[in-house]
Structures are given as structure tokens and as C-alpha cells.
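Long-time lurker. I teach an intro course on protein structure, and each term I like to show students one example going from raw sequence to a predicted 3D structure in C-alpha cell notation. This year I'd like something fresh instead of my usual example. Would anyone be willing to generate the C-alpha cells for the chain below so I can use it in lecture? Attribution to the forum is fine with me.
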Amino acid sequence: MPNSATDFHTTRRAFIIMPDVGLTVAPNGFPGGHMEMLINLHYPHIRYAMDNFPRGYFMNGELCIYTGHDMTPGAVWEIRAEQMATVIKTVPDFRRVFGVNDETPVYPGVRVGEIGDVWEKIRRTTIKMLEKGNIVM
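-- Reply from a regular --
Happy to contribute to a lecture. Here you go:
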């Protein structure tokens, strides 16, 4: 189990689903967060992307996907209904890049916790259910 924000970041595989580009994945061992990914990509509208582009990580055989930027502990970051089509369209990429299968757990949200802690994943489903759009929003 990671014991700091840096450990967490280097252990997970972070990704951002950029609407005009598709799935963008951080390299193995990348020590930064999504904001650092966007900076490294020279993306000009970082705050917009953090508030509106689905992003998340693959770790320990699970996908966690969310959107949000409010760092208040207890805040919920989750995929919004209008983003589901983009996320569903990315499932084949998740399968190819991360080797996920129909039963891979997917969490379309997190509850913000303390920096350095692994935040609570919420709304568990599977890749198969996500791909079919069987997610209650």
C-alpha cells in the first residue's frame, strides 16, 4: 500500500481522457499527478481539463475514473452523465492498454481525502457494465 502521495503516483498508472485526443496515459513510475501530466503535455487550459476531462488511474487490477478539482475533504469527484459517452468510447483502449477484462472492477468516482492517502473509491461496477452503459448516474 502506498504511504505517500509520491508513492501513490509512482505506483498507479494515471490517465486522462482528452476529448479530441483519446486516452492519454502517464509513463510507468510517473511521480506526478494529473496536473503535472497536463503541464508536461503543454496543455493550455489545465483548470478546464481538471474540471471537465474524465481522468483517473489503473492500480492493483482496478480502474478508477472521475472528474473534479475541489480538494475539500469529503467532496465527491465522479463521472458526470454528459461524460459517459466519452468514457464508454474509451473502454477498448482500457482493454488494450491495461489488459482489463469484462470483470475488472471500475469505480466511476472517489471521495476526496487527505493528500497522501488513497481516497475512497465509490460506485463499484465492472468494465462489462460500463461498456454497456449500465451505470446509474
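Some talking points for your students: Helices lie at 5-11, 34-40, 46-52, 84-89, 91-98, 127-132. The CA atoms of residues 64 and 107 lie 5 Å apart.
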